[in-house]
Design a protein that fits this description.
Blueprint (H helix, E strand, L loop, with lengths): L3 E10 L2 E11 L4 E5 L6 H8 L7 E6 L2 E2 L4 H7 E4 L11 H11 L7 H8 L15 H13 L5 E5 L7 H16 L3 E5 L3 H7 L2 E6 L2 E6 L1 H4 L7 H9 L1
Helix pairs in contact: 3-5, 4-5
């Protein structure tokens, strides 16, 4: 089963074509970086693939499930880390994670405690989320995405607001995750991060996928780094 597959995937908002006829395949064990200028269609693509918004045309399947026909099953099977979405302000970190676990029907097997420990939230269990800085709320969002141990993660700027130590821990966790056969779709504007972390990269510009492949496959000259590749393709 192919973890992520899109064919002619298109999204229009009125006269604006945000994503135009995107073809993409992501295999098991891939950490796929998705990069592009602001407004290029990165977040819209992620939202379609993760069942958050329907495509205008074309098809996408995640773990063999059609995202337009059965978005609920897609959401149940994956983990999602949105860029700017934080937990409800009126809940504590612990309350929110137990709420997510209950919604997903997870047994009380210690998954909440493991995620709290993984992201260093032990001392932040009880304060309301409204009282926490953005970085702590981002850690809580990451914890919620990993509670059910999904096989696929869709992440939109997951390193935003994280301190360097947690960034390092998250990088190591993601590398272990894909080594174990997991799949990650990572939307980011941090080119250095994508270059060091990702097995393959897709570059989107004005809604169209202009290139996809390993760094070696995308190079036109010896020693060309991802920044030079990016500038060459989107300028």
């Amino acid at each position: 089963m192919i973890p992520v597959e899109a064919r002619s995937l298109t999204k229009r908002f009125g006269e604006l074509t945000a994503v135009d006829s995107l073809d993409l395949t992501i295999g098991s064990g891939e950490l796929f970086g998705f990069i592009g200028p602001n407004g290029a269609g990165k977040t819209t693509t992620l939202q379609m693939l993760s069942g958050q918004i329907p495509p205008t045309s074309g098809t996408a399947k995640v773990m063999g499930i059609d995202v337009a026909a059965d978005p609920i099953s897609v959401k149940a099977a994956i983990g999602i880390v949105p860029e700017l979405e934080y937990p409800p302000s009126f809940l504590t970190v612990e309350e929110y994670l137990y709420f997510v676990a209950a919604v997903r029907g997870l047994p009380d097997n210690g998954s909440v405690d493991r995620c709290i420990e993984c992201f260093g939230l032990q001392e932040k269990r009880q304060p309301l989320c409204m009282s926490l800085p953005n970085g702590q709320n981002k850690k809580t969002t990451l914890s919620a995405a990993l509670l059910h141990e999904p096989g696929i993660l869709f992440m939109d700027e997951p390193f935003l607001d994280l301190d360097p130590l947690i960034q390092r821990k998250l990088k190591a966790w993601l590398l272990d995750f894909v080594k174990g056969g997991g799949t990650v779709f990572l939307s980011t504007h941090i080119l250095e991060l994508a270059e060091k972390l990702c097995t393959r990269v897709g570059i989107i510009d004005k809604g169209r996928l202009v290139a996809a492949g390993s760094l070696e496959e995308l190079r036109s000259g010896a020693g060309e780094d991802l920044e030079h590749i990016f500038v060459r393709l989107v300028s």
